[in-house]
From TrEMBL:
A Pfam family per the record: STELLO
Keyword Transmembrane: yes
Disordered: region residues: 1-22
Descriptive protein name: Transmembrane protein
Annotated TM spans: 40-59
Species per Swiss-Prot/TrEMBL record: Perilla frutescens var. hirtella (Perilla citriodora)
Keyword Membrane on entry: yes
Length: 762
């Protein structure tokens, strides 16, 4: 068959369609490039259709799998840790001034109140406009009503924000309070020397911002006084809960690492620092203080609003270099020397943004010789009986402890503050605390600061790098906080909160230097934080192992079949611990029933028949034979005292002792013995259920084991969790399955029989 080439028209002008001679199928050109060119629009249409369908399937599966913003943030965080973001190149000497062309161009004020608004003006916001000497600046977002208006306030709508010429606008989400960043720049451009960062749901006490805050730091109206300061005597303490100082030991602020929630003792003593450099001032809020969703959802008995009171007569307290405190955007004053620290990150969840900003700014504040001071109640915030979901701050709980330790250890050799700021933002992106977007955002923010006329402060020598003076007896200042009525898991305290908060502190004192090592066979992304919340209140720390490592959740990798080989690493890490308690996540520990146990003895389930058994190797499967042979090899190489102990307990070498080893305890003085036995096993594949009973029988005689687990509630299999099976009277319960937050909530409710502080009324 002859194939003819398609003849193209020679004229440049198109011919009328009805004059064109239709081509037959035989006249088509089979050359692919010509065919593709002819059918380009069809190809593009089909590709777009395929892409759309694929995207819909992805979104459907993602939502079905329970994906949420926090999970995506965690993914971004993990990815950002494996890449090197691009470092912004800035010519600091060629930044042009930005001229305000809005109707407010000529307005100037030294004191500004910056607030984000998403609804019509609240009564609290109306009261703010009446505070003398302060100018209210309301920042709109995509949810703000178009006709928003309030006499006495300057309102920056999205349209006005876009006209200001600030570089940061390109990075800001449309529907978030972090758009306040535009407001900070606007205020600085218009003469700000103090900026009060606040929300629209709090009333300033007595309508006087200066009643407790130090609005003036220099001049005749400044308070010339020394300020109480947390002691720097413990170099390992990097964060404190300021609510304790102001009379609320059982309440913690949003942004406090959850592992520090149980630290509720008051200060043995304070020191003092001269006032004048408290460039960031954090106020306490009565009513609804700034608390996280964990506190909010577990401390409410009903829909009744929170009304928590703090001691308004407690003195303000400063933070020394090396110690941090959560700082929010609800009730905080920034002085001009710290204006650079107002930037709200954009690549993290909204409920983490101001907290991360606070820690980031505190670290940089030390570079200019400044410090944070926490003040007695300055506002009363109203609880609207609504809260954001835990997922909105999940990445905060995961990262904040690691962030604090990172910031305290961070050092920079740069010679100007803005260079240090940019360097720190870059390194934080490398470490996964935020993404490259915030590196670029920081660069835009710093350039905008210079464009509105801000002068960066001079650097000061870092006190952290100088030898700390010994705190003499005369330098120690005492202050004993009040113990005000509070709320615990829906149970209101009557009278005062003593130092122990009931049994909780009694248990904490007993087990506060015991390390809990927990192996999670279940999904750690759904349970790791919950286990830490439950047991972290009692034990020194909770180490979580799993089959897969999860850096974001601080979950370490280990194999359950050989988990004993990992324990010596934990022993070395906590060399001062009293002992180590191992727990599998299919077993529930009723810690309140362990107080009578001797912490100097070994604990194991040797008297629980379904957990500890002796089997004859003869006639059994190859697995038992191989395990028994390896045990014989190890026993043969044991030092005399180990070998004698073991053979006294296991008379017949044809028998193999097996313990499921869901829970056991190794005291400090047996740690070296345990490690020696692990080294004897070396690379032999002795199973965890075989190795642990062998170790215990070699270390000591069973008659010396503590009997605490003898009354453990134990079944080999359980079809499903049953409240009838659980017993609060037993030291431990096995098995129990926790694979989700719902399972964890059910567990907490039944455990509250033994620990009422866990009670969550529904």
């Amino acid at each position: 068959m002859q194939v003819q080439d398609r003849i193209l028209p020679t004229s440049d002008s198109p011919k009328p369609h009805n004059h064109r001679k239709p081509f037959s199928i035989h006249s088509k050109n089979l050359d692919f490039s010509s065919w593709a060119s002819e059918n380009l629009y069809k190809i593009v249409t089909i590709l777009l259709l395929i892409t759309t369908v694929a995207a819909l399937f992805f979104l459907r599966n993602y939502s079905t799998a329970g994906g949420d913003a926090a999970a995506l943030l965690c993914l971004q965080s993990t990815q950002s840790r494996t890449i090197h973001p691009k470092f912004p190149q800035i010519n600091w000497n060629s930044i042009d001034r930005i001229v305000d062309r809005t109707p407010f161009a000529s307005f100037q004020s030294e004191k500004w109140i910056v607030v984000s608004v998403s609804d019509y003006p609240s009564d609290s916001l109306r009261r703010l406009t009446k505070i003398k000497g302060w100018q209210v600046l309301a920042i709109g977002n995509s949810r703000t009503p178009k006709d928003w208006n309030l006499k006495g306030a300057i309102f920056l709508s999205l349209e006005l924000q876009a006209q200001l010429g600030f570089r940061v606008v390109d990075y800001l989400p449309y529907d978030s309070y972090v758009r306040k960043t535009v407001g900070y720049l606007f205020a600085i451009q218009h003469g700000a020397q103090k900026i009060y960062d606040v929300d629209d749901r709090g009333d300033v006490i007595d309508d006087d911002i200066g009643k407790h805050f130090d609005v003036e730091l220099i001049g005749e109206s400044a308070r010339q006084e020394v300020i109480l300061q947390y002691s720097h005597e413990n170099p390992n303490r990097t964060v404190v809960n300021p609510y304790i100082h102001f009379g609320q030991r059982s309440v913690w602020p949003r942004g406090l690492p959850l592992e520090n929630v149980g630290d509720i003792g008051h200060e043995e003593f304070y020191t003092e620092v001269f006032g004048g450099k408290q460039f960031i001032q954090q106020g306490i809020s009565n009513g609804l203080p700034d608390v996280d969703s964990v506190f909010y959802f577990t401390r409410k008995a009903s829909l009744e609003a929170f009304d928590i009171r703090f001691d308004d007569r407690a003195p303000k307290v400063a933070l020394p270099q090396g110690t941090m405190v959560p700082v929010n955007s609800f009730n905080t004053i920034f002085h001009s020397s710290a204006f650079w620290g107002l930037m709200l990150p954009v690549s993290v969840s909204t409920m983490a943004s101001d907290v991360l900003r606070g820690y980031w700014a505190q670290r940089l504040l030390w570079e200019v010789g400044g410090y944070v001071v926490v003040y007695p109640p300055t506002v009363r915030r109203y609880d609207r009986v609504e809260a954001y979901p835990f997922s909105e701050e999940k990445d905060l709980h995961v990262n904040v402890g690691r962030l604090i330790n990172f910031l305290v250890a961070w050092r920079s050799s740069k010679h100007r503050l803005f260079e240090k700021i940019l360097e720190l933002s870059y390194v934080m992106a490398e470490e996964g605390f935020w993404t490259e977007k915030d590196v670029q955002f920081t660069a835009a923010w710093l350039q905008d600061l210079l464009s509105v006329g801000y002068q960066q402060p001079r650097l000061m020598s870092l006190e952290l790098d100088r030898p700390r003076a010994t705190i003499g007896h005369g330098d120690r200042k005492e202050f004993v906080p009040q113990k005000l009525p509070s709320v615990h898991l829906g149970v209101e305290e009557i009278g005062t909160v003593n130092y122990e908060i009931g049994n909780l502190i009694h248990w904490r004192k007993h087990f506060g230097n015991v390390v809990l090592v927990m192996f999670c066979s279940g999904p750690v992304e759904r349970t790791a934080l919950e286990w830490r919340l439950l047991y972290g209140r009692i034990f020194k720390t909770v180490i979580i192992l799993s089959g897969e490592k999860n850096v974001d959740l601080a979950v370490e990798e280990g194999q359950l079949d050989y988990v004993y080989k990992y324990l010596p690493k934990v022993f070395d890490r906590y060399s001062s611990a009293d002992g180590f308690l191992f727990l599998h996540d299919d077993t529930i520990l009723n810690y309140w029933n362990l107080l009578q146990a001797d912490k100097s003895k070994l604990w194991i389930t040797d008297k629980v028949s379904k957990s500890w058994t002796t089997v004859s190797v003869a006639g059994n499967s190859d697995w038992f034979v191989k395990q028994a042979d390896m045990v014989k090899k190890v026993v043969a190489t044991m030092p005399a005292h180990f070998q004698v102990n073991y053979k006294d307990s296991v008379k017949d070498q044809q028998n193999l002792v097996i313990c499921n080893s869901e829970v056991f305890y190794v005291p400090r003085h047996f740690v070296s013995d345990f490690t020696d036995l692990v080294n004897l096993v070396d690379d032999l594949d002795i199973h965890h259920k075989v190795a642990i009973p062998m170790f215990f029988l070699a270390m000591d005689s069973p008659q010396n084991f503590d009997s605490v687990f003898n009354s453990m509630k134990y079944k080999q299999k359980l079809q499903s969790n049953s409240t009838l099976f659980y017993s609060a009277e037993a030291p431990a319960v096995h098995p129990w399955s926790v694979t989700s937050e719902q399972d964890f909530i059910k567990l907490i409710r039944i455990m509250a029989v033994g620990d009422p502080l866990l009670m969550e009324l529904v």
